[in-house]
Specification:
alpha/beta; Rossmann fold; 2 domains; seven-stranded mixed sheet; six-stranded mixed sheet; hydrolase; NUDIX_hydrolase_dom; bis(5'-nucleosyl)-tetraphosphatase (asymmetrical) activity
């Protein structure tokens, strides 16, 4: 049995001058087809990092990622393929140079784009996209990367550092979360949280917002502080990331979604896992999960 080829891509969209939603479709001379930007996941690469990279490589378009659109499976010329897709809004259109892989880009109205797409699997993703509320903003709830266990650490728990795996995870977070075009990064003042997001914040040129209200020690004293902090970020309409602890984040997510139509994720967050809350204004419309980067 052939091994499944993992791939990822994004449905890239913009608003036209007439305020209509348009999507980018690309022509691949090798297959003589019109399709959505996508490509194979590289070794140790996450699917969303692959999707972000492929959009830039194939279209030269800079985007900010939105909601996860799901996955499709089909038989390609190279074997069985499984492709994960996200929505991605245009931030900047750079000059496109036709090449042997992609020789043309066409912008078509999303509502009429199905007839331009060659693959049925692409049409399936387009159909999902057309049912979405497009202009959502993400709030990422990230658990800190893997730290030394409490048994291995003799000092104050807030000072417990990342272990070697956690340090590697922290270095790889940028490849994932740059896709969301973050405007703010907030973190607990615990060392293991700060060190998880500091490399990413530095690379993105963002000032870290450090708060004791997101720490475990503060949570033991007042469980409302972390929730109030996250709720304020929901209201802020910023593309933001919040790094905190496993005892805190599930409770925050459950409380944030309590009055929404979206069910909370019941699965445990492992070190460097995250939930992405997509919202329009104060309305939460979807929650996606992103696994820790592989190393």
């Amino acid at each position: 049995m052939s091994k499944i080829i993992l791939a990822a891509g994004a449905l890239v969209w913009r608003k036209s001058k007439e305020k209509k939603i348009e999507i980018a479709v690309i022509h691949r001379p090798k297959y003589n087809d019109w399709t959505i930007p996508k490509g194979k996941v590289e070794l140790s690469e996450s699917s969303i990092a692959c999707a972000y990279r492929e959009v830039i490589e194939e279209t030269s378009i800079e985007t900010e990622f939105g909601m996860y659109l799901g996955e499709v499976k089909y038989q390609s010329l190279d074997g069985p393929k499984q492709v994960s897709f996200w929505s991605a809004q245009v931030v900047k259109e750079n000059t496109f140079t036709p090449n042997s892989e992609v020789d043309a880009i066409k912008w078509v109205e999303a509502a009429k784009a199905a007839k331009f797409l060659s693959l049925e699997s692409d049409k399936e993703i387009l159909s999902k996209f057309n049912k979405l509320k497009y202009e959502s903003k993400p709030l990422v709830l990230l658990r800190h990367a893997k730290a030394l266990s409490r048994d291995e650490w003799q000092g104050d728990d807030d000072d417990r550092p990342l272990d070697s795996l956690g340090q590697m995870q922290a270095k790889r977070l940028l490849s994932i979360y740059q896709a969301f075009n973050l405007e703010q990064i907030h973190t607990s003042d615990a060392i293991r949280c700060y060190d998880t997001v500091e490399p990413m914040a530095k690379a993105l040129g963002l000032r870290l917002e450090v708060s004791n209200n997101l720490s475990e020690s503060a949570f033991k004293k007042d469980k409302e502080d972390a929730f109030d902090y996250a709720r304020d970020l929901i209201k802020s309409d910023k593309r933001a990331l919040l790094c905190s602890h496993n005892p805190i984040l599930p409770k925050v997510l459950n409380k944030l979604t309590k009055k929404s139509d979206v069910e909370s994720d019941e699965e445990k967050l492992y070190p460097a896992d995250a939930w992405v809350i997509h919202r329009i204004g104060k309305e939460i419309i979807q929650i996606d999960r992103i696994d820790a980067p592989t190393t």
